[in-house]
Amino acid sequence: MACEVAILGGGVIGSAIAYELASVGLSVVLFDDPCTVGQATRAATGLLVAGRSRTRASLQTRAIEMSLRLWTRWAKALEREASVQIGYRAGSVLRLPESPKEAENLRAAVDRASESGDTAAWLPPGAVAEMEPLVEPVARMGAAQFKSEGTVLADRLVCALRVASSRKGTVVLSEAVREVVRRGLAWEVRSAATTLSAKEIIIAAGIYSMDLAQRAGVCLPLYPVRGVGMCARVDRAPKFAVALRSLQVVPRSAVEVNIGASAERGEGNAVIVSAVLSELRKRSVSRLPWLGQSIVQTVSCGIRPASLLGRPIVSRVPGAPGLSVAVGHYRSGLALAPLTASVVREIVLGKPRSDVADFFAWPP
Questions:
Q1: Which member of 13, 124, 258, 355 has the greatest number of CB atoms within 10 A?
Q2: pLDDT tens across 135-187, in order?
Q3: Which residues contact 70 (CB under 8 A, 6 or more apart)?
Q4: Strands 171-173 and 28-31, how do they pair?
């Protein structure tokens, strides 16, 4: 079996890359280990936001903002091609500060966004309460709203990417990769059932990219962060997602919300610790008392792939022709998916790199 590009990892990032490359006519095979599928996605509440906690925008913030501006067009095309509704809602997030310093930084972010042509507003407490009374308990200092930020149903997003990509010719193999070796001018990928030859390989398997890269002789500077979240049933879900530094509450339907998420650095086992879950529940009720009446329906646990560089790595691997990685997105995988896929397309096709590609560069 042979193809032009083999992608190792079928989560949000790997599936987005498969969709992008198949869209430009490349033959793509996507390997998705059934034992590790969707690990990071399980910890996602569905928020599409940029880090805006500093007075000045960081390079990472600017990269995420660029990706968020791609989302509306990307979501429309994806829903049309896959015939799957992914629940994308732009401008559906209220960013709420928990300290005067955070309020100052969010106000500065609103000003920066407005100056750059984005639609953003700072809302006083009364306006927030009028828009959504359920948010009033955490809106004492006001809230920021950015048109480019939004929410999506993460599980449906992965489904839509798979469907649309498959319709464009991508072959999805639910198999664990056992070996990755260079054979002449191509790479050979082996699973228990398949031996595949590919001109290009993209490693995008979240935290499991470390093991896959090691098989190809490459060391990746990643570490795991375990996240736990809940889906709860409520009498009425808020119309807007609530984004606090310590809590995220994202409406999933008219009577369901995703609540998250914890962050346990260095924990690589997808095991739900009762004390962590209890703390998340306690924190959510202390911020939004009406959540005390909610009924927890499901609890999820996922492993986020964090980078020791403090940023993702989306790059060719030096000294390994035809081998690239798209790893280390931590909590920004959903937000950065369209931009990451675009940068990988540039890498594979050898096109001029976008300005933001330097942000994703291989470690110096």
A1: 13
A2: 999 999 999 999 999 999 999 999 999 999 999 999 999 999 999 999 988 99
A3: 338, 339, 342
A4: parallel
Instruction: Show the beta-strand stretches assigned E in the chain.
Output: 2-8, 28-31, 47-48, 89-90, 93-95, 120-123, 143-146, 150-151, 171-173, 177-183, 186-191, 195-203, 222-233, 241-243, 248-253, 256-260, 264-265, 295-307, 313-316, 323-327
Cα separation of 210 and 162, whole Å?
Answer: 23
Which amino acid, 12? V
**Using omega within 30 degrees of 0 as the cis cutoff, is the peptide bond preceding 261 cis?**
yes
Helix axes 333-349, 154-167, angle to 10 degrees: 20
58-67, 95-104, 320-329: least confidently modelled range: 58-67
Backbone angles phi, psi at 150, to 5 degrees: -165, -160
Q: Which two tokens stand for residue 281?
A: 């529940």
CA distance 201 to 21: 12
Pairing of the two strands 93-95 and 241-243: parallel
Q: Which amino acid is at 247?
A: L
Task: Say what the pLDDT of residue 34 is.
Answer: 86
